[in-house]
Design a protein that fits this description.
- The chain is α+β, with helices and mostly antiparallel strands and about 170 residues long.
- The chain has a single domain (about 20-155), classed as SecB-like (Bacterial Protein-export protein SecB), CATH 3.10.420.10.
- The chain contains three helices and four strands; from the N terminus they run H-E-E-E-E-H-H.
- It has a four-stranded antiparallel β-sheet with strand order 1-4-3-2.
- Strand 2 (about 50-60) and strand 3 form a beta hairpin.
- The termini are far apart.
């Protein structure tokens, strides 16, 4: 049998460097649903064209608490007429500790957004159904791919503006 000479204080110090991630709260921050044509939207057969726009925004609330908001805007049109528009901002409070500054944007924009998506999808689907339209299931979203693509675009834009600045 071995002796364990680790005091509770020492154990806590050892664990403080370990990454810690916890969901504090998930909530619906904003919801907007518009049917500009009203009852006329139900009077004819239409061939819907669906467009989707999404973004994430994160704000540091406290020492290790971050609010992450996933905004999804869906517009359904028949030719050029809007049938309906729905915008959902699903947010969450996350406790994040022990993650270095380079990894933090990945956690906020990939992990947190991935956790928020099912809640946003449910809010969209139930609202559309309450508006008397067919269910609208949002397909899975690969936030990792979107994040890496955005980082690459940002790096290319920065490189382009540096080259432009040096030629003037």
């Amino acid at each position: 049998m071995t002796d364990n000479n680790t005091s509770p204080e020492t154990a806590n110090q050892d664990n403080s460097a370990a990454p810690n991630f916890a969901v504090q709260r998930i909530y619906l921050k904003d919801l907007s649903f518009e049917t500009p044509k009203g009852a006329a939207a139900f009077q004819k057969q239409w061939k819907p064209r669906v467009t989707q726009d999404l973004s994430t925004k994160s704000v540091k609330i406290d020492d290790n608490i971050y609010e992450v908001a996933l905004r999804i805007t869906i517009t359904v049109k028949d030719e050029e007429e809007n049938i309906y528009l729905i915008e959902v901002e699903q947010a969450g409070l996350f406790s994040i500790e022990g993650i270095d500054e380079q990894q933090l944007p990945q956690v906020l924009n990939i992990t947190c957004a991935t956790l928020l998506l099912p809640y946003a999808r449910e809010a969209i689907d139930s609202t559309v159904i309450k508006g008397s339209f067919p269910p609208l299931m949002i397909p899975p979203i690969n936030f990792e791919s979107l994040f890496h693509s955005a980082v690459k675009q940002s790096a290319e834009a920065n490189a382009g503006s540096k080259q432009e600045a040096s030629t003037h």
